[in-house]
Structures are given as structure tokens and as C-alpha cells.
Design a protein that fits this description.
four-stranded parallel beta sheet, single chain, 5 helices, alpha/beta, 124 residues
């Protein structure tokens, strides 16, 4: 009787394991921005799109670089914080460095990277 119980237990454990490990399908949307060149006036439209996606499906928001250099207001503010403030508020998941992130020197870039609420992973 004990052998039968153990055999039944093992069979049920294997059945449960095969069901638990069955892959399931999940949709993920990756939203990517790049070459924004500090055009902060476009953030309301971007925020609307991001909010819509996050309300309907798992969403990852990334930026491929060149966030600043191109908007006089942002370019005049130390460490280009206006664009980074908006990116933090929008909840970017990660970003990559573009060539324009180096326009104002490595010290400024280092301060800007520390300000980000998202990781900077490499250069494009």
C-alpha cells in the first residue's frame, strides 16, 4: 500500500510540475525614443502614448540617446535637467548614451547620469 501511495504521489508531483512549467504567452510592448534633442514640447503626446500602453499591456520604455542639444531652454540649464526631469516623471526603464550626451563634458554627464531614476547601460 505504501509503494502505491508513493507512486501516486510521484505521479501527481510530475503532473503538477509539467503543468507549472508550461510556458504561457505574454505580450510586452517596448516603446523606444531616440534623438529627442531636448524637444520637451513633445512630452505631452509621448506621455499619453505611454499611459495608454501601460494601461493595456506590460510596457518597457527606453531611450537610445541624444536626449539634449537642440533646445535653447534645455541647453542653457545646468546638466540638461529639464529633459531628465520629464524622463524620470514618465518612468523610463533604461537609457543608452548617444554622442550628444558628451557635448558638455564628462563631469556634467556624470552628474546627469546620477540624477536619472533609470539605469544608463552603454553607448549607442
Amino acid at each position: 500500500m505504501l509503494k502505491q501511495s508513493r507512486g501516486l504521489f510521484v505521479a501527481l508531483l510530475l503532473l503538477w510540475g509539467s503543468v507549472a512549467c508550461t510556458p504561457s504567452r505574454r505580450e510586452v510592448v517596448i516603446l523606444s525614443t531616440n534623438d529627442m534633442h531636448a524637444h520637451i514640447e513633445r512630452f505631452p503626446q509621448l506621455a499619453t502614448a505611454v499611459e495608454y500602453c501601460r494601461d493595456t499591456v506590460a510596457t518597457i520604455l527606453v531611450d537610445a540617446g541624444d536626449r539634449w542639444t537642440g533646445n535653447a531652454y534645455v541647453d542653457l540649464v545646468e546638466d540638461r535637467l529639464p529633459i531628465l526631469m520629464l524622463m524620470n516623471r514618465l518612468g523610463y526603464d533604461l537609457a543608452i548614451l548617444g554622442n550628444h550626451e558628451f557635448d558638455v563634458g564628462q563631469e556634467s554627464l556624470e552628474r546627469a547620469v546620477r540624477y536619472c531614476d533609470f539605469p544608463i547601460i552603454c553607448a549607442n
